[in-house]
Description:
Elements: H1 4-10, H2 14-30, H3 32-49, H4 60-87, H5 94-102, H6 122-140, H7 142-166, H8 172-175, H9 182-196, H10 210-224, H11 234-258, H12 295-302, H13 307-315
Helix pairs in contact: 1-2, 2-3, 2-4, 3-9, 6-7, 6-12, 6-13
Amino acid sequence: MLGALPRLRRSVRPRDAALLALGLAIMANSRPYEGLVLTIGIAVALPFWLKKKKLPPAGFPLRSVLPAATILILSVGAMGYYYWRVTGSPFRMTYAVNRQTYAVAPYFICFPMRPVPQYHHAVMRDYYAGWEVHEFLEARSVAGFIRRTAHKAAELWQFFIGPAFTISLLALPWILRENKMRFLLISASVLCLGLLVELWTFPYYVAPATGIVYLVLMQCMRRLRLWRLDSDGLGQSLVRIIPLVCVAMILLRVTAVLAHVGIEPRWPRGNLDVPTPQPQCGSRVGPQRAGHRSRPHRLGARYGRPTEPGTAQLFS
């Protein structure tokens, strides 16, 4: 989508308009909220970007709007038919059904909590009415909001930028003053504001803005390359360090795998880490087995989920 807009400004071609609409359709099916916020950001930045530009040619509506509108209408129709067959309404998303059925804490911190539904399994109750509620209540406090926002920023930095591309951010203050980057920066700023009200933000949530991230990083490297210190190519040396750091990180990970050394925290596997009890001769193994309902609580304590306090408060 971001690549099609500059091409449409230079020359009106149906292919670019179709790619723009295809990008919108992909975002609507993969990350609808983040895609919508990014689209709003683009709409806000578009007048500044098109300022003092020539008006579209006479064939602009027919050659660009018509292909884009056709793809968008077909995409919306297909999505509506899918939701109608699955949820019973073309306007009710499948993810919304999941949250309305099980969740107590809303997806956005500005909304109130829902009534606690009746759960048939303790592990579901501990997750939705325990851990998620604890996360929601923490995010509603000032200290918790600041702490979680810093955690989101650190996680996104680790995934998209990391130590290698952090070097290029030395030139970011100069990039902020470039007029040709204003469109991308305004769009990214609106998306960041939209991420603040989310209860959780994982790296793949920001997938619609991946192009913006690396366009800004590439422009930073171009600006950094021009730096000089006493007629020495300081900027060129800094830019050349970046691929060397990337290669070093790859070698580090490959070496760690070959040496069977864990360099990252182990991902929790839930009930897969709990040994399956072997039935004894003449005993009945089933849901009524003694200690069965206490297993989710042990799992919650094991992985740092404060299930018992939150659950006790909600169900008391």
